[in-house]
Amino acid sequence: MKTNQPSPKGNFVGLLPLLFFLILYISSGVLTGSFDNMPLLVAMMLASIVAFLLKGDNKQDTFNDKLTVYFKGAGQETMILMIIIFLLAGAFYYVTKSMHAVETITDIGLTYLPKSFLVPGVFILGCILSFAMGTSMGTVAALMPIAASIAQMAHISMPLMAGVVVSGAMFGDDLSLISGSAIVSAKTQGVTIFDKFKTNAIMVVPAVLVTIALLMTVHVAMPVWAAWVRSTG
Fold this sequence. Notes:
Layout: H1 16-32, H2 40-53, H3 63-74, H4 77-98, H5 101-112, H6 118-133, H7 136-154, H8 158-175, H9 180-188, H10 193-215, H11 218-232
Helix pairs in contact: 1-2, 3-4, 4-9, 5-6, 6-7, 6-8, 6-10, 7-8
């Protein structure tokens, strides 16, 4: 069945991202003597940026329109969006790690926190770091070694400290504005990320306050519990 719709015309401009990718990847390999010096994923991301900067036939296309076309061309729209967010979140994490931002925030918190506030302090640090980085696993990887050292030096239960780190990391990952799961869930439900943040904050903040209050009693409860265990053992 024939239609009267005109077939789309080819445009050489559409090949510029591909040409940019080939020139960048091949030239870097030739000049440096090894193609491993230019990661393939980095070259692909740079070529994607070039594609977003180009103007198509429709000059009124917004950045969101370009993203939609990009994701649909790569595969299932929502899934590709999540993959891109995970890639960018990982890049953001390694940038902050290279800047020693995680160590700086941790050192500042531990320097000014009183000893009786160590356990809830580690929990709060986990909340802040995970909220800033948008990744729970990255927060656990960054904070867990430090928390383990604190637990060993202060004679705090290691399983307790591990649970504190994980719970703090999950808090930030749920509320973070750059979290992949938060962005995808907001987009699929047709709401803004700020609406999701406000809704989740109503449910999560009271639980966080109760958790902090309970953790502040650990330095009192743990010696009593240890004495009771020794007396009954």
